[in-house]
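Structure request: Helix-turn-helix domain-containing protein, Thermus tengchongensis.
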Amino acid sequence: MPVGVDRTARIYARAILSLIREHGFTQRMVARGLGVSEAYLSRLLRDPSKLEAFLAKLGEHRGLIDLHRAAKDAAFRKKLQV
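Returned structure:
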């Protein structure tokens, strides 16, 4: 995996973990945004390296971009939570 892709996946993983731990997003909300089951996301969250590998495979997925934006922008985060 190229270094740029690895770094991007790590950034997306941190954004997802931040949304779940600090901003009140549920695993169900994140799973819906990524188009995976809640059980699959739960397995990925237990192993950060698997989560990063999965996110690297997704590339520039629209759901990833939205989740990354939500981690930084409070107004956008509220819009996604509703």
